[in-house]
Write a structure and sequence with these properties.
Length: about 230
């Protein structure tokens, strides 16, 4: 490790990464919820967003709870679009090299709806010590409760955790208020990868676009047209 890298990790026992937009990214956007949300009031859209991120309800169940009025055809189209997004996920450029070179363990904390969780299994390079996913723990960033889950899972004082992500409110301001240190993923990559001329900074796109597998895993959720993955 370089002197700069050592300085960044001085006093840090564990790193916690966001997932979408930080370690992996969707390369084909399909806005699967646009046809559904245009029928809803802004209040229902907000309710749907929150429930999708903090429960494991299916798309049909979510729509039933908020009385969104989706048809069967709407639900099928949304599920197919979600599966296409999951199937198009790739590692961000430099992530494989960064993770391989880390000298401390790391965990994950992500705002994630349940049908995007299968994307994580596509990347064996990502081997977190723990996963705090909003759909599983019932709360989402930047709520204090999800950072409490992170600190408990890490098993170290908050001041010895470095949170890394791509969203200001969720990954920088929230963790800082919770007592953690925080850094934007772009800065992390500059420090740990970009300075090495031998590293290939092209996105890793060798993952098969396996839509049938992704579709079987999809049960219906929300896509990033509502900015729910952070």
């Amino acid at each position: 490790m370089t002197e700069t890298q050592t300085g960044v990790l001085n006093g840090i026992d564990i790193i916690v990464f966001d997932l979408f937009g930080t370690l992996i990214e969707i390369t084909r956007r399909h806005r699967p919820f646009a046809p559904l949300t245009r029928k809803m009031s802004s209040q229902k859209v907000a309710q749907l967003r929150r429930m999708a991120m903090t429960t494991e309800l299916t798309l049909a169940d979510l729509d039933a709870v908020i009385k969104g009025g989706a048809t069967v055809a709407d639900l099928v189209v949304a599920q197919a679009a979600i599966a296409r997004e999951v199937a198009s996920t790739v590692l961000r450029a430099g992530i494989r090299e960064m993770l391989a070179g880390l000298q401390v363990p790391y965990g994950l904390c992500s705002n994630l709806s349940v049908d995007y969780v299968p994307a994580l299994a596509r990347f064996p390079e990502i081997q977190p010590l723990f996963q705090i996913l909003s759909c599983h723990v019932g709360c989402m960033k930047p709520d204090q409760a999800i950072y409490d889950h992170v600190i408990q899972a890490a098993g170290v004082p908050a001041s010895r955790i470095l949170f890394v992500g791509d969203t200001r409110a969720a990954d920088i301001d929230g963790p800082t208020r919770a007592g953690m240190r925080a850094m934007h993923i772009d800065k992390m990559l500059v420090l740990f990868v970009s300075g090495n001329a031998d590293q290939d900074m092209r996105p890793h796109r060798e993952r098969r676009d396996d839509f049938p597998t992704a579709f079987r895993a999809a049960r219906g959720t929300i896509s990033t047209d509502l900015d729910i993955e952070s």
